[in-house]
């Protein structure tokens, strides 16, 4: 029992240190990767860079990890797509999506949603809408649905945008307290943007 408690305490301490000093986690992962250059260590390091907004470093490490048996690794490629999108390198994001879009996990992934936004930036409006609408499901994906409504506004489809926002607002009135708390900010934005469109 003491062993489990000690582990729990160590985890809490580690997450506190990471929250106070996020660069410590990166330094630790860099040391770990230098010591043992494994796929797992390189992707963990890339994930840390991505979380800290260090997109060029994340891209470099995700790309370097894609070799040997991991050349088509879904997780690493989907995170690479995210990093390219956040770095506003939409052409490369779209290029790497081609390697994973037939994977069943891609359809509802964050990379799929960002791919839709990348398509919009590169002029593929119809296909962009098709990918963004995948996330238009009741009582879920509130952030994605808010982005969908913004996309529709940019395409001058105001009534469709209002419909998406109205559904979100209606759902917020019937969701559990916990779910409402989790989505409070995005629901507030949906209400503000709905009012702005009326």
UniProtKB/TrEMBL annotation:
Domain of life (superkingdom): Bacteria
InterPro entries for the chain: PPR_rpt, TPR-like_helical_dom_sf, TPR_rpt
Protein name: Tetratricopeptide repeat protein
Species whose genome carries this gene: Flagellimonas sediminis
């Amino acid at each position: 029992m003491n062993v489990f408690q000690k582990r729990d305490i160590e985890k809490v301490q580690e997450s506190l240190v990471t929250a106070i000093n996020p660069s410590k986690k990166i330094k630790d992962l860099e040391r770990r990767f230098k010591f043992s250059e494994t796929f797992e260590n390189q992707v963990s390091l890339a994930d840390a860079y991505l979380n800290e907004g260090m997109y060029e470093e994340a891209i470099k490490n995700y790309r370097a990890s894609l070799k040997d048996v991991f050349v088509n690794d879904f997780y690493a490629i989907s995170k690479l797509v995210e990093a390219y999108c956040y770095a506003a390198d939409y052409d490369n994001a779209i290029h790497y999506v081609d390697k994973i879009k037939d994977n069943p996990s891609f359809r509802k992934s964050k990379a799929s949603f960002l791919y839709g936004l990348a398509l919009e930036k590169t002029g593929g409006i119809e296909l962009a809408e098709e990918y963004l609408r995948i996330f238009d499901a009741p009582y879920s994906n509130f952030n994605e649905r808010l982005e969908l409504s913004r996309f529709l506004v940019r395409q001058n489809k105001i009534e469709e945008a209002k419909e998406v926002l109205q559904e979100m607002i209606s759902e917020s009135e019937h969701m559990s307290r916990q779910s409402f708390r989790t989505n409070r900010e995005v629901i507030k934005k949906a209400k503000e943007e709905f009012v702005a469109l009326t």
